[in-house]
Each structure stands twice: as structure tokens, then as C-alpha cells.
Amino acid sequence: MILILILILILILILILILILILSKLFTKPCKSLINQNLGKSHWLRNYLPLQLLTNFQEMADIQHLKDLVSQVRRDIVRQVHAVNSGHPGGSLGCTEFIVALYNEIMDHDPSFQMDGKNQDLFFLSNGHISPVFYSVLAHAGYFPKEELNTFRKLNSRLQGHPTTHEGLPGVRIASGSLGQGMSVGIGAALTKKLNGDDKTVFTLHGDGELQEGQIWEAAMYASANHVDNLIATIDVNGQQIDGSTDTVLTLGDLRKKFEAFGWNVVTVSKGNDMESVIAGIKEAISLSRKRTPICILLHTVMGHGVDFMMGSHEWHGIAPNDEQLAEALKQNPETLGDY
Ligand SMILES: Cc1ncc(C[n+]2csc(CCOP(=O)(O)OP(=O)(O)O)c2C)c(N)n1
Ligand SMILES: [Mg+2]
């Protein structure tokens, strides 16, 4: 009798737990935005336990969704590159958390896409060779149909190996691939926003090998001299480039000291493949913006992250996996949101 009672009690507890989970999925998002809209950052009600639990539940659900998206995007990357036996999986896999976080947690942007991006946060991919991750994130955000990822690097496709504006792919505002140019473009866009009284932020992404381009340092000098404080430039510090490690090809020295010497504020994200750390790092960078100084995020990532045999080596900078390697890569990154 007591055993049956205990079993019933456990059953009821499990049911209550399931109910709480369902309710939290349904109601916490609207609650969270209501709280954010109506309560100041330091309002005493924020410390009220049920409210805290509610927002914590939502944050956990959001992070899980972002991690699912990361797994799906990694699948898209290796599948795009494998299908045409060309492209750049290494840097794409390493920057997945960052670009997923930007488009799904950080930026205020509109997938219906206007080229001038007025009153929206903007992102410019300067290391254009990592287009597979960029295209996948844009497609999942609703800029164009996911099925179009099937056309990656094909003749007449809008998804060229390196992004171009000529083909009119929504989400792409500059042609990139010729390394070194994206920071200059970002500065121009950031200054334009200031002139227009547009208070949104401009984000750029660069490879660490890309920093060997002189134009980067001309732009860096210009940005601080002109107080371009609505620009956040992120460097993918994976220590690798096309022909080997950055240390063996042309060592970069102390990047923090270099950017600081050029008058920038620097945020270091030492775990650039950990979603929570990436989000925290970008938010810290945003909190440093609008203080008359441009901001740089040194994002330490692992080239090829998420596919064990691709990780940490320049070998996977720009080659495609064969059939067996693709199968292995897909096994390590489960299908979470549906393959294209
Ligand atoms: C101006 C210019 N010079 C050379 C190249 C050839 N190139 C393509 S990717 C690459 C390596 C860049 O290294 P990094 O920025 O660290 O990218 P990762 O290998 O980490 O993806 C080079 C030299 C280029 N695309 N543009
Ligand atoms: Mg690199």
C-alpha cells in the first residue's frame, strides 16, 4: 500500500515537472520581454524569486536552441563543402558559435533585407572564405530559403564561394574574400550611422591571418583617431591560416597590446567555441561601445571545431571532406532542426 502511494506521488511529481516545463516554454518569452520593457535594470522586483526562475528558465531554453542551431549549421557547412568538393570548412566550423550568437541573440536585424540597413545592426564578413557558415546562418535566420544551400559554389548560384553583391543574395552587403577590406567597410558604415543619427552597432569579423594585411592597421588607426565607437571588430584567433600556423607564417605578436596601442578597447574571449562565453564576450564589448573608442574582440577558437579530425590544424582551412569523412562529421553533429 505504502509502495503504491509512493509510486503515485512520484508520478504526480513527474507530471508537475512536465507541466512546468511546458508552461515555461509557452509563457516565459512574453513574460521576459514584459519584464524587460516595464522594469528598470535595477528594479527590486527583478530579485523576486519566481521572476528570476522564470527568466532563468527562458534563458536555458534560449541557450539550448542556440546550441541546436550550432549543430545544424555545422552539418550545413560540411554538407555544402562536400557537395561541390571545394570550400573552406575549417574557419567556418570555428566561427559557428560566434555567427549564430550574433544573428540569433545579439543583433537587431531584419531578414526582409534592405541594403542600406538603416536602424539595424550590421555585420560584415571580412574573411569571406568562411562563407559556408555565413550562408547557413543567414538561411536559418530567414534571409533566403534553406534549400538554396544546395547551390553553394555552383555556376550562376547566388551563393558564390566568396560572397558577392552582384548576385543579390539577401544578407550580403559587401563582396569579401580579398582579405583586409572589411574593417574599412565597417568603419564607413559606422560613421554613416552616426551621420544619420542611427544608434545601431556595426560588427565585423576577420581571420587572424587576415591581420597580416596592411589595410587592417590603416583602418584600425583611422577608427580610433575618429572615435568610431559604434564598431565592434572581432578577430577569429584560431592560430591557423592557409599555409600553416600564424606563428610559422608571420607571427602576430601580442594582439591585445597591438590593438590597445592603436587606441582600441579589447575584449578577450578565451573560449570562443562556448556559446555562453561568446554571448558574454559580445555583450561586454557592447557595454564598452559609445565611449569614443572602437572595440575589438579577440575570439579564441579552434579551427574545425566540432569535427574531431578537422580540429586545430590548418590542413582543413580549404579542403572538402570525402564521403566517409562527411559521414563521420555528420555523426558528430546531430541533425537538430532539419537538413536542407
Ligand atoms: C588579399 C588576399 N591575399 C591572400 C588571400 C588568400 N587567402 C585566403 S584565406 C587565407 C588565409 C587567411 O588566414 P585566416 O584569416 O587566419 O583564415 P583561417 O585560415 O583561419 O580561416 C589566405 C592567405 C586572399 N584571400 N586575399
Ligand atoms: Mg586563422
TrEMBL record:
Pfam families according to UniProt: Transketolase_N
Domain Transketolase N-terminal: residue ranges: 68-329
InterPro entries: THDP-binding (IPR029061), Transketolase_N (IPR005474)
Keywords from the UniProt entry: Thiamine pyrophosphate
Coiled-coil spans in chain: none
Top-level lineage group: Bacteria
Cofactor(s) this protein requires: thiamine diphosphate
Family under the similarity heading: Belongs to the transketolase family.
Protein's name according to its UniProt entry: Transketolase, N-terminal section
